[in-house]
Amino acid sequence: MKKLEHKNCMLSILPVRDTLDVIGGKWKILILISIMEGNHHFREIERSIPNLSTKVLSDQLKDLETNQLISRSVSNGFPVRTAYTLTEHGKTLQKLILEMHNWGVLHRKKIIQ
Amino acid sequence: MKKLEHKNCMLSILPVRDTLDVIGGKWKILILISIMEGNHHFREIERSIPNLSTKVLSDQLKDLETNQLISRSVSNGFPVRTAYTLTEHGKTLQKLILEMHNWGVLHRKKIIQ
After folding, report:
1. Which parts of the sequence belong to the HTH hxlR-type domain (chains A, B) (predicted)?
2. Closest-CA residue in chain A for B16?
């Protein structure tokens, strides 16, 4: 492969860095998977991910909402219930998450060899 | 989608967490892209990624080698030159990196809207 100039290399790196900024870190992808798999309420999501604290979950949900990946709705009933669902934009991450899942399976096989 | 039991949810989450452990964080993917794009020597890789310190690059290269994603070779000439190249296992990440690149482009368009 031809060696790229610094500027061209940055053109490849920037979108990947954007993706890492939005979904990188230890928790965001795991929270998105939990919501995708049918956990919509705060306590459900919290219980589905081991070692995730209430404070961290709360902060991460706000970040995911800011990035338009999930939406938060509040029911009118009593008690009031808040539900988190994936937005259409959030759903565009499914292919990437599947790719991460498949590579994780492959890597574990490779390392165990 | 049917709500999954906690155990089943973990089956989906574990491989994704494995992937994040291996290539997550701020630098590893960027270092892999730099090597994929033709930078094979330490200083070349260092110069191709803004704000990456020598110490961090050195540590991350060791991690990538431990995970069998890159290999390190030392030339016999003088001065001795060390070169980093992607292993066959490292090359299996290309599809995932392309997916991260494409999603980053899509997300930037969405957020600018």
Report:
1. 14-112
2. A101
